[in-house]
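note to self: dont lose this again. the chain is below, predicted strucutre after it. 108 aa total, dont forget to put it in the shared folder this time
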Amino acid sequence: MPAGSSKKREQQYEHIKENAKEHGSSERRAKEIAARTVNKERARSGESKQASKTSTRDSKSASQRGGERSHQGPGGPTKEQLYEEAKKKNIDGRSQMNKDELRKALGR
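---
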């Protein structure tokens, strides 16, 4: 957490970090997810000195978006992501499968 962060942001950081760890993220990845999320919220609310355009122009906060960009939202993972997962699991015929077939073969 950046120096001088409010108690609310520190609590938010810890909550997000613990949630990410519960969902299987490593300690390092959980810290990264929490820091990025909290920093974006700080930028959106004007608490930070600098903010990227995507932080301030986004119509939804990260908590409202609820993973829409994590490839688990409405569109789900891309065909390429499914293919890579099928490749790791050594699923036969994966190169000839479309997105729905890959999804079924992976049990999604």
